[in-house]
Model the fold of this input.
Amino acid sequence: MGKRITQQARGHAGPAFRVRGKAYIYRIGYCPLHVKGTGKIVSLINSSAHSSPLMKIKIQDSEFYSPAADGIFEGQEIFIDDERKVENGNILRLKDIPIGTKVFNIELVPGKGGKIMRGSGCSAMVVTKDKNGVDILIKRRKIRLNENCRATIGIAAGAGRVSKPRVKAGKRHHMMKAVGRKWHRTSPIKTNAVDHPFGGGRGKRIKSKIAQRNAPPGAKVGHIRPSRTGYVK
Done:
């Protein structure tokens, strides 16, 4: 009997596929909707579980963590829900942000905290507003959101992170440990027949494998119920 293939093992969360506990120390969010005014960046934090540095913000009795904007510093005052202050690092509702402004850490539902554009160097642009909502442009794609969703002004800090050379394989090893991914990745055709449906190629003569549409996740490899296979004549 063969062992579980990689997709199956990942679902069972063995040690090679489990994110280390410190990934959950900091929970990204925003303060409650009714809280507004002037907040202060208490500290900037390097979290191994996030690609962008985090900023710890204190306003009134609330404290929360958010991806840091490029160019901010510890001790800086930021304005939350104040449409008069459209400056880097401030947190505003989309309806109060001028068209053409770059934003990140955007809410999809008002009050639920930022869910998209949170990685290092990420940003979107506010492009149109009307009574039905606000459109933001993410690369070449537009999405429409509620006008009361909040976002942070500017670009997420840490841009250029992927341009830095890793130099050593050990660096990559520790990076993958932080995000809970198995590394290295083995090509399925290089495995034994007991380990994967593609395995046991015997000279790598690849044959098409057709998986049923209702196959379990571990067996959904290859063609997923294709309409046709083979060469076009």
